[in-house]
Amino acid sequence: MNTQAFDQLNVPTEVRAFAEKSLEQARKAFDGFASAAGEAASSLEGRAAAAQTGAKDVAKKAMTFAEQNVENSFDFVQKLVQAKDVSEVVKLHSDYVKRQIDVLSEQAKELGQSATRMAADSAKPRGR
Question: Where are the domains of the chain?
Answer without folding.
Answer: 3-123
